[in-house]
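Q: Here's a chain of 466 amino acids. Please give me its 3D structure as tokens.
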Amino acid sequence: MPAPRIPHPREKRIVFANIDREGYTPDIACYLRNGGYEDLKKAVKMAPAEIVAEVKTSSLRGRGGAGFPCGVKWGFIRPGETKPIYLICNADESEPGTFKDRYIIHQDPHQLMEGMIISAFALNVHLAYLYIRGEFPQGAQILEQAIAEAKEKGFLGKNILGTGFDLEIYVHRGAGAYICGEETGLIESLEGKRAYPRIKPPYFPAVLGLYQCPTIVNNVETLCHVKHIVRMGGAEYAKIGKPNNTGTRIVGVSGDVVKPGYFEIEVGSMTLGELINDLCGGLKPGRTLKAIIPGGSSAKVFRAGEKFKIKSKAADGSMVETEIGVLDIPLDFDTMAACGSMAGSGGVIVMDDTRDMVEALNNLNHFYAHESCGQCTPCREGSLWMQKITDRLLAGGGVESDPGLLESVSNNIAGKTICAFGEACSWPTMSFVAKFPEEFAARAKKQVPPPTPPEFLSETLIGAGH
């Protein structure tokens, strides 16, 4: 993990206000001394529909990857629903390059508890689950302790704060599968089955989710924001950031920068260049920028020096088109999408001119081939096929048609699978080959005997990818 740091002056810490704060501990006594559960006390005096309305007004978008509006998702629960309604916190955090939710879990778990309890009250949920990835054993223990502490103080369990509202939260540890970050795959896993994502429609979680009942699945960071929306009010929260990209979000920067780490910033308040140069201290000495993956490893890569034409609304209401470079891209959901990638889970991976892009893609291909659940043929066969092609390119056994074959395989995966894993595994290949054609062409022409057997090389790369 990156070393603890003093917040940068350009950060706006709301969810991360207590992270790496001197003297702050994850127990409930410390949380209460710092105003903990006061937002819950306010929330239970509100009508549940009023809380949902505040979340909608806030324009909060999910922080787990897709960026779907949280209040809209909550609104899919039918009024007067007679089936039990479930809330699931997705704490799987399995996207390479992403490291934020575990800091909340390890250092400020009661913030998450409070956000979950408020959300459950708003949605008439009496049973909620915290689905945490298997590689976070200490995090699971911390959450179990936080649940016990909250119950002892009357913030959880029967008759919460004397309101007559009951809620139980259980921690469920996953087995370390990337696919469990997909909400319907997570639900299948929670039900004790193989994590095969469900077909949507009809299996939209808000209609047919856990145990075929209405279910809301939200990310850790998203649920933490809910308590702050209750405190501030939806309209006030919406003033942070920019329209349709409100609030703050946490970005985790890794790769070839002087100061990798996590930062909480207003959405859209700074560009990729400002993030890298001002907050991360720039690239390592003597290096130049080569590429940026802006939203976790499944996001399409940007090449340094690229230009994009972006449409925006002028003061008089007319639409104007401007040209921006990679380092000028604001860190918001919509601009990132307009430039052909996505803000995703906030994992920014920076690569300098020492990086071999074929090797980098091969590392990602090994990861995604390993993590495919195998349910859909295009993904199951295609992810492994892409891995084998980049394996042989690195081993010196490629042919000149390999770059085109990589593009063909990736195009036959994306959009042809049950869940978005098809896009997750194919978008890196699509973008790497398109953005760095000269490196792939050079590898395809460089047919030299491998210094070691291909089987050994593959095993070595698999080890490096995990």
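Q: Can you summarize the key feature?
A: The chain has three domains: 28-239, 249-352, 357-464.
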